[in-house]
Amino acid sequence: MITLKIENPEIESKLKEFVKNQKQGLEDIAVEAIRQFISSFQEDELIYQKKDVTKHMHPIKTEYDEENLDDVKPYSHVNDSAKYIKELRTKRSYE
Questions:
Q1: How far apart are CA 1 and CA 37, in angstroms?
Q2: Of the candidates 25, 24, 19, 27, which has an alpha carbon nearest to the alpha carbon of residue 3?
Q3: Which of 17, 28, 53, 61 is the right S-S partner for 24, CB 3.0 to 4.6 Å?
Q4: Is the pLDDT of residue 1 over 70?
Q5: How distant, in Å, are the alpha carbons of 9, 35, 41, 58, 81 from that of 55?
Q6: Overall domain count for the chain
Q7: What are the tens digits of pLDDT across the range 5-31?
Q8: Which residues contact 30 (CB under 8 A, 6 or more apart)?
Q9: pTM above 0.70?
């Protein structure tokens, strides 16, 4: 069941007249209007401005013990971190 609250009597009378001319029930027309309304959002492309990564990035500075590098050892073979991450993501997308 769909409940439609119309506070403007002029719009209400125009809607009733429209429904009578369409030879459909008010509920059918309301459902179709809602479907069109929702689908209009799905068809629209979301436009947004991308931020420049180079302006918003910052190095992470952490304190570490040079004698205990257990956290870093598994990645000691990585020379180019960006290339390494890209390869990992590509590999995962094909799995």
A1: 18
A2: 27
A3: 28
A4: no
A5: 55, 42, 32, 8, 19
A6: 2
A7: 778 888 778 777 777 777 777 777 777
A8: 2, 4
A9: no
